[in-house]
């Protein structure tokens, strides 16, 4: 059996007549952290959304755990245990932290609910302190923790993280990335990460891809890309956190 969990092959995605992704090939193996870096507007978030079925790929195939999910609607893709923490966090602002976590729980896994909530509170102690507080009153960093926590409540096989460090202070970014490392190393969670903070992403990742104008232009281990002169010049100069 293949150890590839997610395989994106030859995927093209359009918004109307505008091609946003042009023949993208990306693989994520079980137990890996893989990052996708690139400038704002390169198509990174579009790839994340295409994996989740909205918009759907016009050509190419997306395979998850050996099953072709290219044409599945978003709710059925989520049922395959792919969970996303989207760009901009998108928590429920009027609901409490605890209620937001309830919204993330899968109906199939309700018997694990209390155990899963405790795991998230261990990972993000700040959320435990804030569990009765409305999501909209949290700081940006706390909202990001809640967005990741809500995604984890679905007990995913694959966690998709879209720009988790966006707009956050360096100390909070470090906490978020430390948590991702713990999830991967201690719980074996497979993570696909889209991130503008190239230095933090490459340092954390086993492998990475570079996207420019909707196409993957480079790939390699996190270490290789960190040392690559082109990557350094384009994404790393002055961008360390």
UniProtKB/TrEMBL annotation:
What are the top taxonomic ranks of the organism? Bacteria, Pseudomonadati, Pseudomonadota, Alphaproteobacteria, Hyphomicrobiales
Return the protein name. Answer: ATP-binding cassette domain-containing protein
Query: Would the keyword 4Fe-4S turn up in this protein's UniProt record?
Result: no
Q: Which Pfam families match?
A: ABC_tran
Q: Report the GO molecular function annotations.
A: ATP binding; ATP hydrolysis activity; branched-chain amino acid transmembrane transporter activity
Q: Which GO terms describe its biological process?
A: L-amino acid transport
Would I find Transport among this entry's keywords? yes
Question: From which domain of life does this come?
Answer: Bacteria
Q: Which organism is it from?
A: Shinella kummerowiae
| InterPro entries, sorted | AAA+_ATPase, ABC_branched_ATPase_LivF/BraG, ABC_transporter-like_ATP-bd, ABC_transporter-like_CS, BCAA_Transport_ATP-bd_LivF, P-loop_NTPase
What are the alphabetically sorted keywords of the record? Amino-acid transport, ATP-binding, Nucleotide-binding, Transport
Domain called ABC transporter: residue spans: 6-238
What is the similarity comment for this entry? Belongs to the ABC transporter superfamily.
């Amino acid at each position: 059996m293949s150890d590839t969990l997610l395989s994106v092959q030859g995927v093209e995605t359009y918004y109307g007549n505008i091609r946003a992704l042009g023949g993208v090939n990306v693989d994520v193996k079980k137990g890996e952290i893989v990052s996708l870096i690139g400038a704002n507007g390169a198509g990174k978030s579009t790839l994340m959304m295409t994996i989740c079925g909205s918009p759907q790929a016009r050509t190419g195939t997306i395979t998850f755990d050996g099953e072709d999910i290219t044409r599945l609607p978003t709710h059925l893709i989520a049922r395959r245990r792919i969970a996303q923490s989207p760009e901009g966090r998108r928590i429920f602002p009027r609901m409490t932290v605890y209620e937001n976590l309830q919204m993330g729980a899968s109906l199939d896994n309700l018997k694990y609910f209390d155990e899963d909530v405790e795991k998230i509170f261990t990972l993000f102690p700040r959320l435990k302190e804030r569990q009765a507080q409305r999501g909209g009153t949290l700081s940006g960093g706390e909202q990001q923790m809640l967005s990741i926590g809500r995604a984890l409540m679905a007990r995913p096989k694959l966690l998709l993280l879209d720009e988790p460090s966006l707009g956050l202070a360096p100390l909070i970014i470090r906490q978020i990335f430390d948590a991702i490392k713990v999830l991967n190393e201690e719980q074996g969670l497979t993570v696909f990460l889209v991130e503008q903070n190239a230095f933090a992403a490459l340092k954390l990742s086993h492998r990475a891809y570079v996207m420019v104008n909707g196409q993957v232009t480079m790939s390699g281990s996190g270490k290789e890309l960190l040392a690559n002169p082109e990557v350094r010049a384009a994404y790393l100069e002055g961008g360390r956190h």
